[in-house]
Amino acid sequence: MKRAQIETLMPEMRAYARSVSGHVQDAEDLVQDAIERALSAPSRPDMLDELRPWIFRVIRNLHYDELRRRRVRREYSAAQIRYSDEATTGTDTERDTLIRLAFEKLPPEPREILFLVDVMGFKYSEAAQVLNLPAGTVMSRVSRARKALRDLIAANGTNTI
């Protein structure tokens, strides 16, 4: 992909990103992420008329990935608060300790995937690259790992982990 092609598409990319995100700052982030993805993609269209829909699809996918990540984090945070409130009436330090101990009891694979996505904030696609797995596999493993963590907390919340 040539710089001139990117420059040609920039106004349209920004407009599209603003239309899907609704915020100027989010739109700029989407455009920058899309350019980064496009430049690092092993196979991408060379012709401008093929590149245009391809890069728009990248922007759209990035936007939905971000929305999904925000929703998952909100749900995860709400679940953690709910489970920690049920598990302990102690201080935040006690709750954090309970979660950390449960996290350490997870098997290595679920612990690793939760660390990448929830602790380090990796996108599913980034975690997939690190683990050399398809993004869908990462998503399902994250879901199972979160459930396993919640189960550990629920099972041991009233006892010492």
UniProtKB/TrEMBL annotation:
Keywords of this entry: Sigma factor, Transcription, Transcription regulation
Domain spans labelled RNA polymerase sigma factor 70 region 4 type: 98-149
InterPro entries associated with the record: RNA_pol_sigma-70-like (IPR039425), RNA_pol_sigma-70_dom (IPR014284), RNA_pol_sigma70_r2 (IPR007627), RNA_pol_sigma70_r4_t2 (IPR013249), RNA_pol_sigma_r2 (IPR013325), RNA_pol_sigma_r3/r4-like (IPR013324), WH-like_DNA-bd_sf (IPR036388)
Domain annotation RNA polymerase sigma-70 region: ranges: 6-71
Signal peptide region: none
Domain of life: Bacteria
Family the UniProt entry places it in: Belongs to the sigma-70 factor family. ECF subfamily.
Protein name: RNA polymerase sigma factor
Species this chain originates from: Paracoccus onchidii
Lineage of the organism: Bacteria, Pseudomonadati, Pseudomonadota, Alphaproteobacteria, Rhodobacterales
